[in-house]
Design brief:
Elements (H helix, E strand, L loop, with lengths): L5 E6 L7 H14 L3 E5 L2 H7 L2 E4 L26 H13 L4 E6 L1 H14 L3 E5 L15 H22 L1 E7 L6 H10 L3 E3 L7 H10 L7 E6 L6 H11 L4 E6 L11 H19 L5 E6 L2 E6 H4 L8 H10 L2
Parallel strand pairs: 1-2, 1-4, 4-5, 5-10, 6-8, 6-9, 7-8
Antiparallel strand pairs: 2-3, 10-11
Helix pairs in contact: 1-9, 2-3, 5-6, 6-11
The structure holds 6-O-phosphono-beta-D-fructofuranose.
């Protein structure tokens, strides 16, 4: 194996709070080990277009507390093509980049896998997504901040729901995963949580509403974006079955991706950033670095991107026992 002298770092896919803390950790760890660090703008898109910038200790000062990503991000269609990956490889060669640290989620690691197969570029991944839908880490960077953003928003919705005696359906992010919905739903004391991992049984939901406490005037139902029914449709069904409920729908949307990262996300990103650079120096590649039970773990990309098909039964149990 050739000695690594320069590493490239980029963020890709949906941004998540804590990505900047991860960039900072990667740059400073690289410099600590006497490597050159190059920032690649706009993920794979910028790699293809040759948008590279040298990174220094100073270039990552004062960013640990900022949401978004200073390197910007994109979902690249061109990198999905062999031609796009060839151009990206040529750009890396031209700029003397020997290895990469990719911060992103499923799409990022799928692209990285294809790149390694074709060009054998050493790549280590950091889990950067609010969805927490990767195998090989207890939590992804941005998840903690996102669920806290959700509970902040729903606490406010609860105030108005309570004042008007209303039922609110709140749709949260998670295209393929209900983990934002599940944990934030428990955190806000939701009456029901609907997620893509379990088929939405409308009759069961109706029964739950029927059996719910009559002395509690506001009701909150959290629905994951990826649920097969969806917030507006569920609201229509509830209106038809329970005309007595004054039902409203609120879609939280991209507010969940922004904002300053929580302390948990900053520390997670810092730990993983160091572990990623050290992994490259130790000859690892094609793996995502994560934390399981407080220990660093490396999971091959092809395993990391496999979705959990079932929600944690212990979390589901909490909802069933506590929410009525
Ligand atoms: O990155 C994850 C995520 O926030 C999903 O929860 C959501 O479905 C998706 O990204 C939205 O993507 P976009 O910003 O491209 O609309």
């Amino acid at each position: 194996m050739e000695k690594i002298k320069t590493i490239g770092v980029f963020t890709s896919g949906g941004d998540s709070p804590g990505m900047n803390a991860a960039i900072r950790a990667i740059v400073r760890t690289g410099l600590y080990y006497d490597l050159n660090v190059t920032g690649i703008m706009r993920g794979y898109e910028g790699m293809i277009a040759g948008e590279f910038i040298p990174m220094s200790r100073k270039s990552v000062a004062n960013i640990i507390q900022r949401g978004g990503t200073i390197l910007k991000t994109a979902r690249s269609e061109t990198f999905k093509t062999a031609e796009g990956r060839r151009t990206a490889y040529e750009q890396l060669k031209q700029h003397n980049i020997d290895a990469l640290v990719a911060i992103g989620g499923e799409g990022t690691f799928t692209g990285a896998n294809a790149f390694i197969r074709e060009y054998n570029v050493p790549i280590i991944g950091l889990p950067g997504t609010i969805d927490n839908d990767l195998i090989g880490t207890d939590y992804t960077i941005g998840y903690d901040t996102a669920i806290n953003t959700v509970i902040d928003a729903v606490d406010k919705i609860r105030d108005t729901a309570e004042s008007h005696d209303r039922l609110f359906i709140v749709e949260v992010m998670g295209r393929d995963s209900g983990l934002i919905a599940l944990r934030s739903g428990i955190g806000v004391g939701a009456e029901a949580i609907l997620i893509p991992e379990s088929r939405t049984n409308i009759e069961e939901l109706f029964k739950r509403l029927e059996e719910s406490r009559k002395d509690k005037s506001s009701k909150i139902i959290i629905v994951a974006e990826g649920d097969e029914v969806g917030g507006f449709e569920i609201a229509d069904m509830i209106r038809e079955r329970f005309p007595k409920y004054d039902t409203r729908v609120s879609i939280l949307g991209h507010i969940q991706r922004g904002g300053k990262p929580s302390c948990m996300d900053r520390v997670l990103a810092s730990r993983l950033g160091i572990a990623a650079v050290e992994a490259l120096l130790n000859g690892r590649k094609g793996m995502m670095v994560g934390i399981i039970n407080n220990n660093v773990h490396y999971t091959p990309f092809y395993n990391a991107i496999k979705h959990l098909s079932e929600a944690d039964p212990s979390l589901l149990k909490i909802v069933n026992i506590l929410s009525l």
